[in-house]
From TrEMBL:
The protein's name in its UniProt record: MBL fold metallo-hydrolase
SUPFAM superfamilies, per the entry: Metallo-hydrolase/oxidoreductase
MF terms (GO), sorted A to Z: hydrolase activity; metal ion binding
Classification via SMART domains: Lactamase_B (SM00849)
The keyword Hydrolase appears for this protein: yes
Organism, scientific name: Tectimicrobiota bacterium
Length: 213
């Protein structure tokens, strides 16, 4: 699997270009800004963009959808709970827990990981052990749970679900907030402060108020 990372905007957003090495069919994950440059990078690698994959529909993860769809005719994947929030008129396919997305010969497994938003998803590729975690899990940090539609308890459960992935799974977060651009599930379980909480209650206190009583 080819994975290219494009850090865009003032809040270190990550847009990813994913592609199947063999078929050169590709997907853009969370298009926001600088879409022409990302499409050019795909063309330079002879990758044909057929899909847009959204981790969630905050503006800074989907503003670029119409531009990608206009240029490529790509089909957009989004969780069913956030389908109405996708900008533009592209063809939409909705996801839920356990859905599979095929990009060329690559199969991505979909985990519904709500908490930051109701329809947040993580795309997991088992053969290359990679997980695109959106704004659920960052390097050394996790997503906000105080926004409209957020639910800190759901976010705790989503993080616990991701902790069950193999330790060597590489995470590709929605923002580059960490000391390194990427990390692994095992590293985060050991060092991410939100994974050091022993209970849901402790997590909620830390996430919402920045402290544990
Ligand atoms: Fe977000």
């Amino acid at each position: 699997m080819i994975v290219r990372t494009f850090e865009v905007g003032s809040d270190q957003n990550n847009t990813y270009l994913l592609a199947c090495e063999k078929t050169r069919i590709g997907a853009i994950v969370d298009p926001y800004l600088e879409v022409p440059g990302i499409l050019q990078a795909a063309r330079d690698e002879k990758i044909r963009i057929e899909y847009v994959l959204l981790t969630h529909t905050h503006r800074d993860h989907c503003l670029g959808v119409p531009e990608v769809v206009m240029a490529t005719g790509a089909t957009v994947y989004v969780h069913e709970k956030e389908a109405e929030r996708v900008p533009g008129e592209g063809k939409l396919l909705t996801l839920k827990q356990g859905s599979r997305v095929q990009v060329g010969e690559i199969i991505l497994e979909v985990f519904h990981t709500p908490g930051h938003t109701p329809g947040g998803v993580t795309y997991y590729q088992p053969d290359s052990a990679g997980a695109i975690t959106g704004d659920v899990l960052f390097v050394g940090y996790c997503g906000r749970a105080d926004l409209p539609g957020s639910d800190p308890r759901a976010l705790w459960r989503s993080l616990q679900a991701l902790a069950k992935l193999p330790d060597h799974t590489v995470i590709y977060p929605g923002h580059n907030y960490g000391k390194t651009p990427g990390s692994t599930v095992g590293y985060e379980k050991s060092f991410n402060p939100y994974y050091q909480c022993r209970t849901e209650e402790e997590f909620v206190q830390l996430r919402l108020y920045g402290k544990v009583e």
